[in-house]
Amino acid sequence: MAKLIPISLSNLTNRIHFSYSPLTISFPSFNTTPNCSNNATNISRRLGLGFIALMASSVTAIPAEVANALDLKLIAPEQSLDEAESGIRRHAEALLQVRSLIESEAWKEAQKRLRSTSALLKQDLYTIIEYKPPAERPALRKLYSLLFNNVTRMDYAARDKDVGGVWESYKKMEMAISDILSRI
């Protein structure tokens, strides 16, 4: 069986050999060898070692979080039905509170609040839908889809500062939330 050796920068530099040989172009009427200095091999080695160091640091680096992006997580593995049911009304109310930001036309703040609260509501709704009997799921999934499609439309309308589009999406979102809460 092969012996595993831990990877370190010194092991890699000892095993990687950079070689350089000048290119020679020959034709019957044309002979040339490019003028290459010894610095070209040093640059290649530096670039190779820099690349190795960069790759080693990227493997061990902690991933950065994307700020204000839509969160695509659907269900928290540790979230129970009771937790989802207790949080759904609070998260739905928080999502509807975006109205005050829309009225004041604070578009960036409205987008940030919309994104952060919709992710929590999405998580709660998905958990509740998964715990419902199979016969009730299609109707709830349709309302779920309607709600979050309108959240996305409102986000895009707020980005474009389209007042009419924002209010239309808000009204549809409000109706979908009330339908969902009445069925749950």
Automatic annotation (TrEMBL):
Q: Which Gene Ontology CC terms are recorded?
A: chloroplast; chloroplast thylakoid membrane; extrinsic component of membrane; photosystem II oxygen evolving complex
Q: By its UniProt entry, which InterPro entries does this protein fall under?
A: PsbQ-like_dom_sf, PSII_PsbQ, PSII_PsbQ_pln
**Gene Ontology molecular function, alphabetical:** calcium ion binding
Record's keyword terms, sorted: Chloroplast, Membrane, Plastid, Thylakoid, Transit peptide
Biological process terms in GO annotation: photosynthetic electron transport chain
A Pfam cross-reference name: PsbQ
Q: Which domain of life is it from?
A: Eukaryota
Q: State where the protein is found.
A: Plastid, Chloroplast thylakoid membrane
| Family affiliation | Belongs to the PsbQ family.
Q: Which PANTHER family match?
A: OXYGEN-EVOLVING ENHANCER PROTEIN 3-1, CHLOROPLASTIC, PSBQ-LIKE PROTEIN 3, CHLOROPLASTIC
Q: What is this protein called?
A: PsbQ-like protein 3, chloroplastic
